[in-house]
Amino acid sequence: xxxxxxxxxxxxxxxxxxxxxxxxxxxxxxxxxxxxxxxxxxxxxxxxxxxxxxxxxxxxxxxxxxxxxxxxxxxxxxxxxxxxxxxxxxxxxxxxxxxxxxxxxxxxxxxxxxxxxxxxxxxxxxxxxxxxxxxxxxxxxxxxxxxxxxxxxxxxxxxxxxxxxxxxxxxxxxxxxxxxxxxxxxxxxxxxxxxxxxxxxxxxxxxxx
Length: 209
Ligand code: ATP
What we know:
CATH class: Alpha Beta
Distance between the termini: 40 Å
Number of helices: 9
Number of strands: 6
Bound molecules: adenosine-5'-triphosphate
Largest sheet: 6 strands, parallel
CATH architecture: 3-Layer(aba) Sandwich
């Protein structure tokens, strides 16, 4: 079973890395693909060139078995729709491999406004990363989707390629890429919020100044 964590990764930080590792262990995933997006659909476009965001992700995961950078969205010159990314992963991995699409509970709140959300839920399981004890869903339509697909047992996810929804509590580190960019712009060091090797790239390329 393979996990997928998409994001701008501008830059990647310990909030991403720690949660990826915790979910990998909790769900017994063989690997997690960290997939930097090229064109954002739901947010402002990243200013940092895709090549450098990918380099930072590669550097951050090197030495951690099972965490991998995946550049498929950067090779595509169109909007980064999750459904297309999953279809492309299905082309590579076949229809049977269980896939888990990881997302924070904030992203999940808007899930039904994504492009082809029901196709997404067929192509992969949804793993919603939450604070301990926080798994409530306010939107009634989303509640219905959750009720029909919810499982609390990671072993169940291993028995089907997709279709399940699982809430996974993870350690929440209050780190955001926005804050790291602001610190650098301000002349403050973001050291210890992200890997030193990523900080070296930021400094070498004079990013976020
Ligand atoms: P920005 O501040 O630029 O919006 P970000 O730090 O939220 O960026 P993204 O690359 O947009 O980072 O995030 C990719 C994914 O990682 C999203 O699903 C997001 O919910 C999750 N994520 C981001 N920061 C954290 C964190 N501190 N802990 C857990 N998950 C996180």
